[in-house]
Predict the 3D structure of the following.
Amino acid sequence: MSFENPRQPEGINVTAENPLREFFTLLLGFGGLVLATLLLLTWSAQWLAQFVPFSVEQRLSGSVVSAIAQPKTADEQAREAYIQGLAARLVRHLDAAERVPVVAHYDVGATENAFATLGGHVVFYRGLVDRVPHENALAMLVAHEIAHIQLRHPIVANGRALTVALALGALIGLADNAVIGSIANWLGVSSIMTFSRAQERAADALAAELVLAEYGHLRGASDLFEVLLDTHGDGGVVGFLSTHPGLRERIATLEALAEEEWEAAPNGAIVPSDAELTPLPWKS
Amino acid sequence: MIELGVFVVLLGCGYFFGRAAENRHFASIRRREEELRDVLVFNGRELPPEAVGGGMLVTGSVVISVDYFKRVLAGLRGIFGGRITSYESLLERARREALLRMKDEAARLGAGCVVNARVETSSISQGRGDSIGSVEVLAFGTAVGLSSVAGAATDAAAGGA
């Protein structure tokens, strides 16, 4: 019997293929699967959320309200009352039977932002309110947030976020590898807690209706977007604006709407460009 | 986004450094395997006819860390199934390195072959979520002198097994 160690050829146990190719194939497959599942769940959650009674939404919003409560000076209280009054005036133009109650809050923070959340609460930050030039633009802002509430967008966004979070949690729990869980997480995180562009457009359209009903014209409404454009630029915006359609697009839509309204109006109607703008008490 | 950036950087580091280290290691393994071709390794218990003297336990052990890229690739593979090629090359390196170290020790003792050679693999540290952090491969066997190898057996026999 002879004892020897013949040379082993290379490549029996190790493949020569570049691992990047395998990586991208698997990543695309996995990413596609996760995204498709998330999309399906998102759609289902969005559809179901509209059936959640508003009273349930109000109960859920308890923590939101306590977070907003803060001491205010007399001036700030007056400003909050003014915004609440404006909101009440705008809400009146909605069908009383379908109207969802809106609670407006004024936050003294410097953030240039405003948002609508669960339970009909809308929050306007001093940072943004300070920059709005006149009541018509402020009305557009308030009406936009009211529109989100009327269209039940917060509960839809929260329902979607919760569903996505649960789905991701399940996926991360199932994945036997933490890294895979992280990949799934990053894929889903972007869709959490934001209103979609379609929702923003719908809110803009309803807001324009409310402003038109209140003032009889839309002049000055697009100034809100000019302010935002000046503050954040057209895109790459954070927070409340992150998923909003481009601001230039929104200005154009609003101006086209104003134009249409003017053309449809009977002779003698107020020409949008001549319509009077209502000043804000703290600007005068 | 920051997390995603960190992920991509770690992945890039894992891929480029891991791949460079692997290529270097394989080149070194091939070179040293040629150098130590004279030391024969068998997993049987029977001794070659030219065996002389007593036996001595020789071991070779190596620990290799899994790079981030391999870990992610293995994780993705864990979903779809199939060959985890990223770990195959890792274990191939570890196994050959451990055997080389064992042969190196045998050669240092003047032995011409190692019989009853065994290889054991274990995961010695775990990454997040039970992913493999690093592997140890231990090779061990009985070094025996061969009459054909000059100066064989004396050192090995002196040590005992």
Confidence is low (pLDDT under 50) at residues 151-161 of chain B.
